């Protein structure tokens, strides 16, 4: 969809590309905050309370990312799509499939989820960095937080030597299975 205006100093074609990149990040942020809340509700086991309480601040922060991204899209002259139907139709990843499960299973699955989200954020940063330093700065700040949250998750999945039990997992199901092995 062509935009009618954009912010001063940006040409329309660049703004449209940035909006497209941001829309994919909006879907990722909305999906991630819902997935994190799902984990918050469905995690069980001996480390329940620590993981349950660790996840909620991540939910709130990522929900804020979605709002910032949507507002940036609007600032650039676009119309952010935040409906569940648009998310499901346009996402390029599978839905999180782990239900009620142990803390280690969910953390193993979240390790893989965060890897995907962070990788796609870094790819967007690389492209948008050539087009708009303001948007690049916003995405860098969000990636910083995502990487911190990922570290929180991974700290539960590494041994004393720093090896991750989820090494080589390419889906949240594989990550959950690897996490289960540490119980």
UniProtKB/TrEMBL annotation:
InterPro entries: DPS_DNA-bd, DPS_DNA-bd_CS, Ferritin-like, Ferritin-like_SF, Ferritin_DPS_dom. Keywords: DNA-binding. The keyword DNA-binding applies. Residues 19-159 form the Ferritin/DPS domain. One of its GO terms (molecular function) is DNA binding. It comes from the Bacteria. Belongs to the Dps family. PANTHER family: DNA PROTECTION DURING STARVATION PROTEIN, GENERAL STRESS PROTEIN 20U. This is Starvation-inducible DNA-binding protein.
């Amino acid at each position: 969809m062509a935009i009618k205006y954009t912010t001063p100093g940006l040409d329309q074609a660049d703004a449209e590309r940035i909006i497209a990149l941001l829309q994919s990040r909006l879907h990722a942020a909305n999906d991630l905050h819902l997935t994190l809340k799902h984990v918050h509700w469905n995690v069980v086991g001996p480390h329940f309370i620590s993981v349950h309480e660790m996840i909620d601040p991540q939910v709130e922060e990522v929900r804020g990312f979605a709002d910032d991204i949507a507002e940036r899209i609007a600032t650039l002259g676009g119309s952010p799509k935040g409906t569940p139907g648009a998310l499901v139709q346009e996402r390029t990843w599978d839905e999180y499939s782990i239900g009620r499960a142990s803390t280690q299973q969910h953390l193993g699955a979240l390790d893989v989820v965060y890897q995907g989200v962070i990788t796609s954020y870094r790819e967007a940063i690389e492209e948008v960095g050539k087009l708009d330093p303001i948007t690049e700065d916003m995405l860098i700040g969000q990636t910083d937080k995502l990487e911190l949250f990922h570290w929180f998750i991974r700290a539960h999945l590494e041994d004393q030597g720093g090896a991750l039990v989820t090494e080589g997992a390419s889906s949240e199901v594989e990550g959950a299975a690897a996490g289960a092995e540490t119980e």
